[in-house]
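Researcher: Hi, I'm a grad student and pretty new to this. My advisor asked me to get structures for two proteins we've been looking at. I'm not sure of the right format, so I'll just paste the first sequence and hope you can take it from there.
Model: That works fine. Here's the first sequence with its structure tokens right after it:
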Amino acid sequence: MSTTLVANGELARFYRCWNDAFDRRDAGAFVALYAADARLMSPGSSALVGREAIRAYVEATFFAFGGVDSEMCSAKVIEAGDYLVDIGTYAITFDGGMQMAGNYLTMFHTSGENGLEAAYDIFSPSDVPT
């Protein structure tokens, strides 16, 4: 993989789909962006492996708070072979104005015709939701 994935907008396209699915609380569309054997590592819990485990977690946590508005902001992108690592910050606003912000590291794998899919996803809130 070369820097063309970032230059040709693949990472931006991925995050448009990610934010759209997250903001609509569309768990099916959201987990479709993950590899079948993806791992989601969230604070205070064991790694979640696979789309169904990730779906159950997202529905029981983030989506349980009602409507959401999310934003991802890449700070550093590293490409290596078939992988792309994105390190950045996120901000989520829930219905009622509760907010959560923090840091993330997502490792993507190229998936042929689907472009990028999240293989490993780690996030850490900066503070308690307000």
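Researcher: Oh nice, that was easy. Here's the second one.
Model: And its structure:
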Amino acid sequence: MISGKYHGKAISLLQTKEMVLNQVTYQPNFTDWHYHGNPLFSFVLDGHFTERTCKREYSRHSGTLFFQNWQDAHANSSSKAHSIFYVELKKNWFEKNLEQDKPVIGHMDIQHPMIKVIFHQIYKEAKIGGPQACLAVEERLVRVFDLLTPARRKMHQTPRWVFLLSDILHDLPGEKLTLQDLAVQLHVHPGHLCRYFRKHFRCTISEYIRTIKVEKSLNLVRNSTYSLTDIAYLCGFADQSHFSRCFKEINHLSPFQYRQLLWNS
């Protein structure tokens, strides 16, 4: 497809010579096989749909983030309306902003909670606009590739316990886990687990769990009418005060400020 063109109803949020950011709303339909002319990130804001690629079928829902390289063919189908935030990057963006000018190769589902949090921040910056929006978006995209590219390059070298641990932490972010509990489940020494977790995830275990909780809360703060107390409980925080502190530490806004900013923009 032509750069910035989509099958749904698009709202242009930010556009430069190197990148195009759109929010696109789709009605229930089937979108036949197609591909995009540039690499892009797709961040599902709300709703649900099914995506088919040449290799497999994916269930996409609010909070899903994935990357597609140019000419990655896919088809989509949905029974309800859904909305996607697209960040489309042209070749010269990679050449100007990254030390290596080659984007991530091929289709990638992104689970890292900090990358998802960054995409919430990119969406916020693009939506509210302003003279610094482009700089704010590009800074965050460089950070995304800093987190993303090494993980992709070293994936074949990553021990199996790393993937198992990621699944455990995403499934049980609100549980009171101990280092010993995790080590027993993974059959890994606690000291080894601590040392190598930071190598693979770029943070500590507790920071990773906290980021998972905050990332989950971002969807609820933006899309729901739940009270902040209810959101704190649903995301596994001890109370609203603890939730607000963790949220502000990562997003530099309180949950109330974040909600008001997006709802009023």
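Researcher: Is there anything I should tell my advisor about the second?
Model: You could mention this: Residues 9-153 form a domain with the Jelly Rolls fold (CATH 2.60.120.280).
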